[in-house]
Amino acid sequence: MKIVLFGTGAIGSAVKDVLVEHGHAVVSIGRTSGDRQADMTDIASLTALFRDLGTFHAVASAAGEVSGAPLEKATDEQWAKSIAGKGMGQINLVRAALPYIADGGSFTLVSGVLTEEPIPGGSLGRTINNMVEGFVKGAATEMPRGCRINCISPTVLAESTHYLPYFVGYTPVPAREVALAYLRAIANPLNGRILKLHKTDS
Amino acid sequence: MKIVLFGTGAIGSAVKDVLVEHGHAVVSIGRTSGDRQADMTDIASLTALFRDLGTFHAVASAAGEVSGAPLEKATDEQWAKSIAGKGMGQINLVRAALPYIADGGSFTLVSGVLTEEPIPGGSLGRTINNMVEGFVKGAATEMPRGCRINCISPTVLAESTHYLPYFVGYTPVPAREVALAYLRAIANPLNGRILKLHKTDS
Q: Phi and psi dihedrals of A10, rounded to 5?
């Protein structure tokens, strides 16, 4: 399969490795890095990319940032950037790719443990992750031509040393384990599912 | 209690009636109707309102519109307006009121049955409702000075004859029953709860 992968960070790199090991062709997309460049907050840039890629069978997203900030201090700009990035950015990936993806193709987006679990200053993350998961569950009922859409919800990554101090007491997950969940979502007939790599049940 | 109520439609009117019957003072807010006017999509207009209201003990929202449109046809504008209205609009209510609400005050927002249940063209509603509920659960962990925040999730209203044809087979709920849930959320020590008026369990 030819798979378009957004994000070149810790998750994106691990997903690329796992997909290539399993014989897939990966086109990695970053804002400034990757095989090709596109801006998730600009749907015209995404449409131009997908139109130009030729046949592809899956779109996977390991991209989109959210601000961490106490509710009373979070700024309008932090809210707007978080929604435009990880929220509407990922929704735009799907909207822009839908006219071009092969029949039976799949979309795999990313949310995170903050959907359900609190950390101090985690309200923005919780809001945006729920937005993404809500979209995935809704879009799963509207996918045309046998396409599918799922979401990966990792807890904090073992490799993300910058974020670990914000997830106190959370057992981290290795990026490779998260990457296997992407492969699982792409390779199997799942639709509308949230695959959780949370390390705790509650 | 002095309660600031956003929305003057079927739910807003019923909430006003129930709150007044229970002895509360209600200040109703609409874009063009109500006792006072404010625009939920403009946080400066909300801040000006709350600064000017004097002491208030609760903010209740029965406002915010979402587009219904098939995923493949929904426009950038429909997405942006839905997020800015029912999504970020309600989040802005909370952000703007927090510096002014009385200690122990409460916020009550509105989502809807689409959070969990599909209708054709319901992906936008599902996305925005999950965004709102995610915010409520996150903000509940960050409320200062004993304040609380909850969310009412009604199914389609019996009174909303315009929307009934889109909710085929869904048993509608009378607006007064929804209004009682607002009273319950305001009058009792709930925090981070989603009160569902769905008429079906699954």
A: -60, -45
Decide if B72 and A144 are in contact by the 8 Å CB cutoff.
yes
- Selected residue of A42, A71, A128, A143 to mutate for chain B interface (largest B Cβ count, 10 A): A71
The pTM of the whole model exceeds 0.95: yes
Residue pLDDT, tens place only, B98-154: 999 999 999 999 999 999 999 999 999 999 999 999 999 999 999 999 999 999 999
Half-sphere exposure at residue A130, Cβ-oriented, CA atoms within 13 angstroms: 28
Q: Which fold has domain A2-197?
A: Rossmann fold (3.40.50)
Contacts of B80 (CB under 8 A, 6+ apart): none
Would you place residue A75 in the very low, low, confident or very high pLDDT band (cuts 50, 70, 90)? very high
- The residue with tokens 């950038």 is B76
The answer for B 35-74 residues in CB contact with A (under 8 A) is 43, 70-72, 74
Q: What is the pLDDT of residues B26-35, one digit of tens each?
A: 999 999 999 9
Facing residues of B58 across strands? B3, B106
What does the domain layout of chain A look like in residue ranges? 2-197
Instruction: Answer yes or no: do A126 and B137 touch at CB < 8 A.
Output: yes
- CA B154, CA A194: separation in Å to the nearest integer? 25
Query: Which chain A residue is nearest to residue B42, measuring alpha carbons?
Result: A76
Q: How many CA atoms lie within 13 A of A19 on its CB side?
A: 28
Q: Please tell me which of the candidates B123, B129, B133 has its beta carbon nearest to residue A142.
A: B123
Q: What is the mean pLDDT of chain B?
A: 97
- Region A67-90: what's the mean pLDDT? 97
Q: What is the DSSP string of A53-76?
A: S-S--EEEE---------TTT--H
Q: Which residues of A touch B87 (CB under 8 A)?
A: 83, 131
pLDDT at A201 > cutoff 90: no
CB-CB under 8 Å, B133 with A141: no
What ipTM was estimated for this complex?
Answer: 0.97
